[in-house]
Amino acid sequence: MIKKFALLAALMVAVVVPAVAQVPPFEAEIDCGGVFQPGASVPFTARFENQTLQVQSLDMTIAFAIPGQGQRDLINRTVVLNPNQDRDFNRNLNLPASAPTGSYSMSITASNGTDTAFDTCSFNVVP
Known about the structure:
With 127 residues, the chain is mainly beta. It has a single domain (23-122), classed as Immunoglobulin-like. 12% of the residues lie in helices and 55% in strands. It has 1 helix and 8 strands, in the order H-E-E-E-E-E-E-E-E. The strands form 2 sheets. Strands 2-8-7-4-5 form a 5-stranded mixed beta sheet, with no helix packed on it. Strands 1-3-6 form a 3-stranded antiparallel beta sheet, with no helix packed on it. The termini are far apart.
């Protein structure tokens, strides 16, 4: 009976473990939010965290989606993080005076060539 239980447990681990997604060795987050009018400046923060003892070189894209007009890239760059380093970048998205009203979303994608981290935030534009 014990052998059957041990075999069943080993089989369950072999089936379940590969289905668990691997967590990247780094984090990429974006923070934004609030209510703004056309022509306003929308502050946002991109945050990166290296959780390893190795240097991480990350290809990063920050994009935003305009209501009814699709997504546009705002920033494309490489960010290099030293071991256990955190970095924040504070920026502004300057809305044109003709910016459509509605819900906007921003996203950040960072990849080291093997792993990818992704995050989103949103804000609203009102008349």
